[in-house]
Amino acid sequence: IDNALASSGIPDMLAIVQYDHGSEYNRILSEACDVRVIWGGDETIARLRDFPIKPHASELHFANRYSALVIDAEHYLAACDPDDVARKVFNDVYPSDQNACTAPKLVFWLGDQSDVELAKPLFWRALSAVLTQSDYQTIDGVGVRHFKSSARIAAQFNATQAVGLHPHLTVLHITSCSAHMIDAAGAEGFFMQARIADLLDLAAFLDHRCQTMAYIGDLKTRLIDLVASHGLKAIDRIVPVGSTGNFSFVWEGKDLIRSMSRSFA
To answer: Beta strand 250-251 with 254-255: parallel, antiparallel or unpaired?
Structure first.
C-alpha cells in the first residue's frame, strides 16, 4: 500500500490505522468525520452507532450479506466446459475461504429434473478436481466445521442430504431456505443447493441480504427482469460466474463516489 501511494503522488491523503474495538478512537474519529463508512457487518454497525457523527455528516453501512449462483442446467450440459466453470467457481469462493459477502453459498439449478440430475455430478466433480489441483488449504478442523453446520441445518430445517466430495467441499441438498439457515451455513467450501423450475422460484429462497447473484447461461436479462418486475429486495448485483469479487464504485446499490462527494448545481 505504501508503494502504491508513493507512486500515485497522494501519500499524505490516506492514513490507515488499527486499534481495539473498545478504543476511544471510535468516538474521536466519529466526531471529526464528514463521512463515516461502516463496513464490518451487523454487529460492527450496531456497536459504532453508539458514537454520534456531526449533524451534517453522512454515513454508509454495509451489513452482513451472502451470495448465490444460478445455473441453467441445459446450457451447462450443452455449452460449458466443466473444468473451466469449476475454475471460475473456485476463484469466486476459495481465495476468501468463502467468507467474502460475494462468495456464493447457495447454488440453484434451473431446469428439468433430468437435466439437473445429469449436470450436478459433473459440476461438483469438476470443482473437486480443481480443489485437488490447487492444493487449497485452510486451518485444521474444516471437516468438523462442515459436519456441525450440516447437522445444525438438518436438525432445524428441511435439508435432505449432505454430500462430502472433498475435504473442502460439502454440498447440502435443501428444499427451502431462511435467514437462520444461511446463518448456520459453514464456509471454506460449504454449499447448499436446490432445483428450481423457474427463476421466479428464487423469491421463495432469498431475502434482502442476498447481495450478488452469479449465473451460468443466458440469464442476465431474465434475472434483471425478475428483480424489477417483482420488486425483489434481494439481489443487488448480477454477474457472470468467475467475477463475483470484481469491485465496483456502485456497490450494493450505493453510488460510493457520489455518496462521499459534494455536487454543485
So the answer is: antiparallel
φ, ψ for residue 97 (rounded to 5)?
A: 55, 25
Question: Nearest-CA neighbor of 52 among 31, 21, 24?
Answer: 31
Q: Which pLDDT tens digit goes with each residue over 113-131?
A: 999 999 999 999 999 999 9
Which residues fall within 8 angstroms of residue 205, CB to CB, at 6 or more apart? 106, 108, 176, 177, 194, 196
Q: Which long-range contacts (CB under 8 A, 24 or more apart) does 155-164 make?
A: 156/180, 156/181, 156/184, 157/181, 157/184, 159/192, 163/124
Query: What is the Cα–Cα distance from 18 to 25, expressed in whole angstroms?
Result: 10
Question: Beta strand pairing status for 190-196 and 104-110?
Answer: parallel
